[in-house]
């Protein structure tokens, strides 16, 4: 070992000890905050502010995403010193919903898989868990109608969002795809990989199942099969990745919502989601949306959904930039409430920071 290499390794050892001491000091501060607050320590707006500040202050050479991931885990571990959060997600284990949950909360919480999106809402509303994570839209397949319906019918609030790049992997126990006689996958993943499958596995029978994690489980039990699922499922079920990133759209991503019995305070970079119904008269939609433009509110999404109350009646889901406490947003909401037949604020929450 050269003198220079030995010197650098000693320097790294010293820095590691220094980092460890600072981590202990940070954890002690978090514990003191817990004593003062005597309640829920998790504040989504505060964590988003911390992660953004660290990205802005990052001198390199580590990329911003790597720095944020490290500090996401530090904050997660510090919160768990009091009592680990309970987070429900659309299961089973190994789904993209679990990956989104861990991306948002770190690895310290107790993650509980649920059978349906409705089960996630019920668990949060009943107080059996602190938070829930549910998919709301995919960049290629569109909105998740079940989530939108439950947001309308349920008193829970949106307190965060997670954006997850969806990379589909072809998995199997085998070393190659030549022996495969069937392919398991969720129907949505089959659609997202349609062109790749037609080019590479056109003759292989495709078997739709309830989730990608279930597809991976079946492939682990069936050596003459393969599955489409994510890397987490491959690791969970001990499968080989025969082909990586087989999705047709390289920008394929899914947006998830974090639901709770509370929403979030202003973080400085926020989004607000609402749902409303319009009276059945000419120009009604213009009248309802015009206050947003007049108050300088940037609308980022408008989604119509059939209302359950009557035939050919619709409700409209809108996302826009800003917190409901911001003056411009508050003014637009006041006018919207005066004009619309029905308005519900689903929540204000930080824009995804990671």
UniProtKB/TrEMBL annotation:
InterPro entries: ACT-like_dom_sf (IPR045865), ACT_dom (IPR002912), Chor_mutase/pphenate_deHydtase (IPR008242), Chorismate_II_sf (IPR036263), CM_dom_sf (IPR036979), CM_II_prokaryot (IPR002701), G/b/e-P-prot_chorismate_mutase (IPR010957), Preph_deHydtase (IPR001086). Catalyzes the Claisen rearrangement of chorismate to prephenate and the decarboxylation/dehydration of prephenate to phenylpyruvate. Residues 273-350 form the ACT domain. Its main location: cytoplasm. One of its GO terms (molecular function) is chorismate mutase activity. One of its GO terms (cellular component) is cytoplasm. Its EC number is 4.2.1.51, 5.4.99.5. This is Bifunctional chorismate mutase/prephenate dehydratase. Signal peptide: none annotated. Keywords: Amino-acid biosynthesis, Aromatic amino acid biosynthesis, Cytoplasm, Isomerase, Lyase, Multifunctional enzyme, Phenylalanine biosynthesis. PANTHER family: PREPHENATE DEHYDRATASE P PROTEIN, PREPHENATE DEHYDRATASE-RELATED. CDD domains: ACT_CM-PDT (cd04905), PBP2_PDT_1 (cd13630). It is found in: Cytoplasm. Pathway: Metabolic intermediate biosynthesis; prephenate biosynthesis; prephenate from chorismate: step 1/1; Amino-acid biosynthesis; L-phenylalanine biosynthesis; phenylpyruvate from prephenate: step 1/1. PROSITE patterns: ACT (PS51671), CHORISMATE_MUT_2 (PS51168), PREPHENATE_DEHYDR_1 (PS00857), PREPHENATE_DEHYDR_3 (PS51171). It holds the Pfam family PDT. Residues 1-86 form the Chorismate mutase domain. SMART domains: CM_2 (SM00830). The keyword Transport does not apply. One of its GO terms (biological process) is L-phenylalanine biosynthetic process. It comes from the Bacteria. The record marks 254 as: Essential for prephenate dehydratase activity. It catalyses: prephenate + H(+) = 3-phenylpyruvate + CO2 + H2O; chorismate = prephenate. Residues 86-261 form the Prephenate dehydratase domain.
């Amino acid at each position: 070992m050269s003198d220079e290499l030995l010197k650098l390794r000693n320097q790294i050892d010293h820095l590691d000890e220094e980092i460890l001491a600072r981590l202990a000091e940070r954890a002690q501060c978090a514990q003191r905050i817990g004593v003062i607050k005597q309640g829920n320590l998790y504040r989504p707006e505060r964590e988003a502010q911390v992660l953004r500040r660290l990205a802005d202050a990052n001198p390199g050479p580590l990329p911003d995403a790597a720095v944020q991931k490290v500090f996401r885990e530090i904050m997660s571990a510090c919160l768990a010193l009091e009592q680990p959060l309970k987070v429900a997600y659309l299961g089973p284990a190994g789904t993209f919903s679990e990956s989104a949950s861990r991306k948002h909360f770190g690895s310290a919480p107790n993650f509980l898989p649920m059978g349906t999106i409705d089960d996630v809402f019920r668990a949060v509303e009943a107080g059996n868990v602190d938070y829930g994570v549910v998919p709301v839209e995919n960049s290629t397949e569109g909105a998740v109608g079940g989530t939108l319906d439950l947001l309308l019918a349920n008193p829970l609030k949106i307190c965060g969002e997670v954006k997850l790049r969806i990379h589909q992997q072809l998995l199997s126990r085998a070393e190659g795809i030549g022996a495969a006689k069937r392919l398991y996958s969720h129907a949505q993943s089959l659609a997202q990989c349609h062109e790749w499958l037609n080019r590479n596995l056109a003759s292989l029978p495709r078997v739709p199942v309830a989730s990608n994690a279930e597809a991976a489980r079946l492939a682990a039990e069936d050596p003459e099969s393969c599955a489409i699922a994510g890397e987490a499922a491959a690791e969970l079920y001990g499968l080989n990745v025969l082909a990586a990133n087989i999705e047709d759209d390289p920008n394929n991503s899914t947006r998830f919502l974090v639901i709770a019995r509370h929403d979030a305070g202003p973080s400085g970079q926020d989004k607000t989601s609402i749902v409303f119904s319009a009276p059945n008269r000419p120009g009604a939609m213009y009248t309802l949306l015009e206050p947003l433009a007049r108050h300088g509110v940037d609308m980022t999404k408008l989604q119509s959904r059939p209302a359950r109350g009557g035939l050919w009646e619709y409700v409209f889901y809108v996302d826009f930039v800003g917190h409901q406490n911001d003056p411009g947003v508050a003014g637009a909401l006041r006018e919207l409430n005066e004009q619309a037949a029905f308005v519900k604020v689903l929540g204000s929450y930080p824009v995804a920071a990671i």
